[in-house]
């Protein structure tokens, strides 16, 4: 039995944290025991412990984009992480970017392998960081993430950063689930529903979704809109954005009766079950795991294309891809689907087939376990 320590500086439940939970649950439990390290307790650690796995809180501040590897390796938190690795008899550390400088130093002192997941493309490694990144095994969650991180020209061969797509559990997320959420929200059985799942952050495009809803309601006034998600990171700018979005929806004469914000839902599959069409309005998505969850539930997806969605959604087959910020194109795709039940069914079925063939949790877990086995030799 090998003990894998996963790390997450984020303590809420966004896409990356959901990926961790799903991956840990799909590992061969006869071969691997997942553990988790976070800076504080939160939704992620509660769900982790509920699954029966060990979670450890160790306060620390995450690495900035300017970190100096040799300097940060000397921080006291790196020594505390080293003690934790030894005490918990960890065999391999699989970490996020924000924990990487500390856990890499700690693991190297104990001669333990380290793997890290590149989940975002929001910065380019600095000149003094590149040798550090070249020295560490890593995986990217999409080609968009890989190419954005490596830059142009790439600072290391792309073969050193393989892509392993995050998988979705097609048993948990499937068509035909109970539509209780509709009844909870007072939505008629024959009403058409458009859903979005996203944390409150400007890049997620809640303002774009509101503009889309206005256009759709002009053509189909009985349409209902559901948005699930909350403020995951606790950043002041995100909290202000959330406040502005909710206030505008409450005050808008059309949206206030047709658009509902329901916050965080642990049973997020209930949101997809209540919907007829799923929308991603983000400026960009590193991967876009909610799109794949919706596809697993048999929903057609209308999404902006920048980033991961261009790799997961087949335009005209499993949904529609549009340019970021193009409200008219988003509305056009949604209206086409709302007006044609047969088209919704065909695209939804094609999306679920694509999910099961190319983005299953079994395939993702197998790819990770092969990589773990190689690193543990």
Based on the model shown, name its key terms.
16 helices; 6-stranded parallel beta sheet; 15% strand; alpha/beta; 2 domains; Rossmann fold
Description:
This protein has 377 residues and is an alpha/beta fold. The chain folds into two domains: 2-167 and 360-376, Rossmann fold, CATH 3.40.50.2000; 180-358, Rossmann fold. 42% of the residues lie in helices and 15% in strands. It is built from 16 helices and twelve strands. It has a six-stranded parallel sheet with strand order 3-2-1-4-5-6, sandwiched between helices. It has a six-stranded parallel sheet with strand order 9-8-7-10-11-12, sandwiched between helices. The longest helix is centred in the C-terminal third of the chain and has 18 residues, at 341-358. The chain is elongated. The mean pLDDT is 94.
| CATH architecture level-2 label of the largest domain | 3-Layer(aba) Sandwich
Number of helices: 16
Q: What is the fourth-level CATH superfamily of the largest domain?
A: Glycogen Phosphorylase B
Percent of residues in β-strands: 5-15%
Q: What's the number of extended β-strand segments?
A: 12
Class by SSE composition: alpha/beta
- What is the CATH C-level name of the largest domain? Alpha Beta
Q: What is the CA–CA distance across the termini?
A: 14 Å
String of helices and strands: EHEHEHHEHEHEHHEHEHEHEHEHEHHH
**Low-confidence residue ranges:** none
Q: Strands of the largest sheet, in order across it?
A: 3-2-1-4-5-6
Quote the CATH topology of the largest domain: Rossmann fold
Mean of residue pLDDT values: 94
| Number of structurally distinct domains | 2
- Rounded radius of gyration (Å): 21 Å
Oligomer: single chain
Largest sheet geometry = 6 strands, parallel
Portion of residues within helices: 40-55%
Q: Can you tell me the overall shape?
A: elongated
